[in-house]
């Protein structure tokens, strides 16, 4: 097989006073280590590993220039010499491996989660708890000075540059848009006045740090909110930023309050590179494009097509710290690909927990989850070739253990083989590909089509049960009717459906099934953008058309026993996307349902004391799972010791994050 090469991705970029070794920018991510005790040392290990893995330029998570700009009380700042000196451990770790790093300066403005929030105007954000104070002229001037001082402190702390967060709806973005700036003084009103704040910030920073320091400006090129900027306005601001001294313009897509998905797995790969491309030729400084670029092939194509000068990837470097090195060595198949699930990164951060990665639990735990050679070589049996089993098997084998992996079906991957067939979850096949590759590389012995009994496990020093889950069938009269099918069978066989379908169970699986059976036939990027009301000309403010609801091709009911909101799915930061998708497709969401019986007429239910018949042609059961623990019970009866991980340990929602992490932790502990 011909080795792949990535000449555009790996080409150096001359910035005049310095050169980046390739066209890869590791985008900003808040990890939660920024505020943790001893967190900077852990961040140093995190960023150091990515620099070792070949990233051209790293951008940190956001640090506030002052207290009022912090995201929440006691959040990370860069506002004192002590803080600057503390960052040396981090910048030294990156420079040790020949990398470059920029500190992101982020003033949260009205997104601050504290009562001292301030913004261009006293308008509360729809996702915020506090109404901000309108900044006075003096406060604006002081904030501009604080940005400049923070940039100077970053330079003293060893940083190669800074990134000014001017997108996603944070303070700088709040000044730019009439949505959040209704001032009548010199900082509001006309567009020229509204962009005065970001331009003054850049000028002040450049004056303070000199000419040989990188200033990246994260420019919101597509706001995706009402009263946002038009493309003409974005061009005007970009030219002014270049003139003020910006080195690189990075693309920002969508405010946090926008109701259009921008980075979730449902978003097509490289879905917004056209936005950056529209600015090409308008300025003479490098442009960075971003969002859902997760393989070197996609990145190379974007650059080869001339859509940008660099690509920004953030979550892909949680998934694999050596993404760039593997691409440079012509080994893209060895990359652990980001599947854009958000479950361990964004969801964790919004819950106040440390970020990590579903497919790579060692992300942000580099100093804690250390895979070291085993003191004694042991023989290990792993039963179940799903995510938990493969995670445990490959980690143990990496430690030098002799591992045999048993799988009763004819392929590895477990529940991910089903998940990857759900529209919008195709990325899951990448995780199966990566772990299969790891199984080969670490020398795990695989036995497919093998059902294991207790007698087969003689001679093993340790036994790991990772036998997964089976669908749970609720006890509804008529559950064995021919109309009824469980979700696993439905996904595997994909039988032809009638015009009316009832989905029983509105957890993550029920939402996936409802999405799957209402998925439109066309999957082009233009169709996806149109479905979400995105205006590719960006002639409308914020780049939005009015949303158009499609007429449903079939009647679908999504049902749950529990009262309250239906159809969110498990993800904290992606639940609204699932719900909005189902609503746009005309799915009827019903909570507080009692299931009475199933017969030829359909599904009989009770809702708010009233009896109803849903005349469903098919009834798909998504009512949870049960752990498959038959072998575990046999071993227990025989007095054998063993470990249970993954779905076999706890069914609940299908939790790949827990399953993969359990596998790694257990294998490290043996």
How would you sum up this structure, described in words?
- This protein is of the alpha/beta class.
- It folds into three domains: 13-350, Aldolase class I (TIM Barrel); 379-471 and 626-669, NAD(P)-binding Rossmann-like Domain (Rossmann fold, 3-Layer(aba) Sandwich); 484-518 and 553-623, FAD/NAD(P)-binding domain (3-Layer(bba) Sandwich), CATH 3.50.50.60.
- The protein has 22 helices and 27 strands.
- The strands form seven sheets. An eight-stranded parallel beta barrel has the order 3-4-5-8-9-10-11-12, surrounded by six helices. Strands 15-14-13-16-27 form a five-stranded parallel sheet, covered by helices on one side. A five-stranded parallel sheet has the order 18-25-19-20-21.
- Helix 1 (39-52) packs parallel to helix 3 (88-95), helix 4 runs parallel beside helix 7 (196-209) and helix 14 packs parallel to helix 22 (656-669).
- It starts with 12 loop residues before the first strand and ends with a helix.
- Residues 9-333 form the NADH:flavin oxidoreductase/NADH oxidase N-terminal domain.
- Its cofactor is FMN; [4Fe-4S] cluster.
- Residues 379-633 form the FAD/NAD(P)-binding domain.
